[in-house]
């Protein structure tokens, strides 16, 4: 994240060439032909009170309807927050991981579904910044910054496991030099709402044994390749029939790619080395722990509102109980901030620890607050019930907490 302003092309990537009109909103321009980037208003680093208020209202409505939160996406597009990690040279805020985590936390405190959609958008954007060609930067980044495009990652699939080592989605080279994608993805956030998907596929092109990218990273496997596929591209079909207990507005569902033909310019990074790109994600300092901290803070705020309304602050036991809860939230926030600063001896491990610590803290805090609220929190419409479902979801998001533990301990068994 800290190197968001570095737009270095990947070595060995193929020269950019124009895409057919059906592939993108506008074809990637040939090298040297691009004009000035359209002016974009300064991107904010924090959500405004108005944005947070609108997202809060969206969260309650989406939780009741269990439908994809299109209104929240509209708010995010208009807020400027989708430009968070886009380099300033392409209309973004150029935010580092500390700023990203802080912004995601604030959004999660009012709308966890919107926060995870924002986080995934920024994660895909960062992968494009780090691994995209100059042509991809010119074409895609301004759209991501301006809110015209919402990005989503399509990595998970049924049967592949949390570590993404046995993908059934395949990518075959075509005689024309492009690729044919075929497979199905599951648990894709923003399915049906995203304008571009980062699709992970097994391309059968394994790197040389001497290539460091061929080493086992614990997440992903050799011979996998990333592709950027627009949401309206022929052959890509989202399915939002999946009904989740938590994060109900996040449009988490299925995405299939059937006979989906894309040009080689849709490839992100060299062929066969997606696992190494995935491995570097944890070093960025961006962490899903930020979503968990936001949920925990929302639960703590609900406890304070209840205590104030009922006049419970006069009781020392109540005050001390709230202090204990606040300490847990502050501790989780501290480890998330440490991950974002990337100052530890191993920033990647700190990022993994931050997700484990913050998600566990969020579940504890929400459960304790639910008990503190008593019968007031047992009403179905009380937000504490949504907080509990959403907090549980963070632990199951990739890398899942079980996989985080495996990744942390991987070197101990070598």
Strand content: 5-15%
Distance between the termini: 30 Å
Radius of gyration: 21 Å
- Categorize the overall geometry: globular
- Main sheet: strand order: 1-4-5-8
Write down the secondary-structure element order. Answer: HHHHHEEEEEEEEHHHHHH
What's the helix and strand layout?
Layout: H1 49-65, H2 70-79, H3 97-108, H4 112-131, H5 134-146, E1 151-154, E2 170-173, E3 179-188, E4 196-202, E5 224-230, E6 236-239, E7 253-262, E8 267-268, H6 274-281, H7 289-310, H8 316-341, H9 347-373, H10 383-396, H11 401-409
Parallel strand pairs: 1-4
Antiparallel strand pairs: 2-3, 3-7, 4-5, 5-8, 6-7
Helix pairs in contact: 1-2, 3-4, 3-7, 3-8, 4-5, 7-8, 7-9, 7-10, 8-9, 9-10, 9-11
Question: How would you summarize what this structure contains?
Answer:
43% of the residues lie in helices and 12% in strands. The protein has helices at residues 49-65, 70-79, 97-108, 112-131, 134-146, 274-281, 289-310, 316-341, 347-373, 383-396, 401-409; strands at residues 151-154, 170-173, 179-188, 196-202, 224-230, 236-239, 253-262, 267-268.
């Amino acid at each position: 994240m800290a190197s968001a302003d570095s737009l270095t092309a990947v070595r060995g990537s193929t020269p950019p060439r124009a895409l057919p009109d059906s592939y993108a909103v506008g074809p990637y321009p040939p090298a040297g032909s691009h004009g000035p980037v359209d002016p974009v208003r300064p991107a904010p680093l924090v959500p405004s009170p108005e944005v947070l208020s609108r997202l809060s209202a969206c969260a309650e409505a989406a939780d009741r309807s269990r439908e994809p939160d299109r209104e929240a996406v509209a708010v995010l597009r208009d807020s400027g927050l989708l430009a968070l990690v886009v380099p300033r040279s392409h209309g973004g805020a150029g935010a580092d991981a500390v700023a990203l985590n802080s912004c995601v936390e604030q959004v999660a405190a009012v709308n966890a579904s919107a926060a995870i959609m924002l986080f995934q958008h920024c994660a895909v954007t960062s992968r494009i910044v780090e691994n995209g060609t100059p042509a991809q930067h010119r074409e895609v980044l301004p759209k991501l910054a301006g809110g015209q495009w919402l990005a989503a990652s399509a990595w998970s699939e049924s049967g592949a496991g949390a570590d993404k080592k046995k993908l059934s989605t395949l990518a075959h080279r075509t005689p024309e030099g492009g690729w044919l994608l075929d497979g199905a993805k599951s648990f894709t956030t923003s399915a049906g709402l995203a304008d571009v998907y980062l699709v992970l596929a097994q391309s059968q092109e394994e790197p040389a044994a001497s290539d460091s990218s061929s080493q086992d990273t614990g997440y992903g496997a050799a011979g996998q390749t990333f592709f950027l596929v627009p949401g309206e591209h022929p052959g890509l079909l989202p399915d939002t029939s999946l009904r989740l207990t938590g994060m109900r507005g996040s449009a988490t569902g299925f995405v299939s790619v059937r006979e989906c033909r894309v040009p080689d310019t849709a490839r992100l990074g060299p062929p066969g080395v997606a696992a190494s790109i995935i491995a570097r994600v944890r070093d960025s300092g961006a962490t899903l722990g930020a979503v968990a901290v936001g949920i925990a803070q929302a639960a703590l705020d609900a406890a304070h509102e209840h205590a104030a309304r009922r006049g419970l602050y006069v009781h020392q036991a109540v005050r001390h109980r709230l202090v204990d809860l606040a300490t847990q939230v502050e501790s989780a926030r501290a480890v998330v901030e440490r991950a974002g600063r990337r100052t530890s001896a191993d920033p990647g491990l700190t990022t993994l620890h931050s997700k484990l610590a913050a998600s566990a803290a969020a579940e504890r805090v929400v459960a304790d607050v639910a008990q503190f609220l008593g019968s007031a929190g047992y009403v179905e419409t009380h937000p504490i019930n949504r907080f509990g479902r959403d907090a549980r979801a963070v632990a199951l998001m990739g890398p899942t907490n079980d996989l985080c533990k495996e990744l942390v301990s991987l070197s101990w068994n070598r």
